[in-house]
From TrEMBL:
The lineage of its organism: Archaea, Methanobacteriati, Methanobacteriota, Stenosarchaea group, Halobacteria. This is DUF3194 domain-containing protein. InterPro entries: DUF3194 (IPR024502), MTH677-like_sf (IPR035954). It comes from Natronomonas salsuginis. Belongs to the UPF0440 family. It holds the Pfam family DUF3194.
Length: 86
């Protein structure tokens, strides 16, 4: 279940990307009905300890899509911080 040589206190890059992506998508889908979202693209990269989260959202103006995107990115960052126990 864990990679040989990997510490349980250090999540894999794959686990980091998955947690961040799930958190970001969760925020968006908690704010809009799935049928209201015309397009959603969450791109997460985690390389050399640096997390990059990009969220593209095409959805109705209520709630404000830009605010939802900011919340989604923040949720992704929080999820990763929690993985690392921060």
């Amino acid at each position: 279940m864990t990679n040989a040589g990997a510490s349980e206190s250090e999540p894999t890059d794959e686990a980091v990307v998955e947690a961040a992506s799930d958190a970001a998508e969760g925020v968006v889908l908690s704010r809009y009905k799935q049928s209201e979202v015309t397009d959603l693209d969450v791109t997460v990269r985690f390389e050399d300890g640096i997390l990059e989260v990009d969220v593209y959202l095409n959805a109705p103006d209520d709630p404000d899509p830009e605010a939802v995107v900011r919340e989604a990115v923040e949720a992704a960052e929080t999820a990763v911080d929690e993985l690392f126990g921060r």
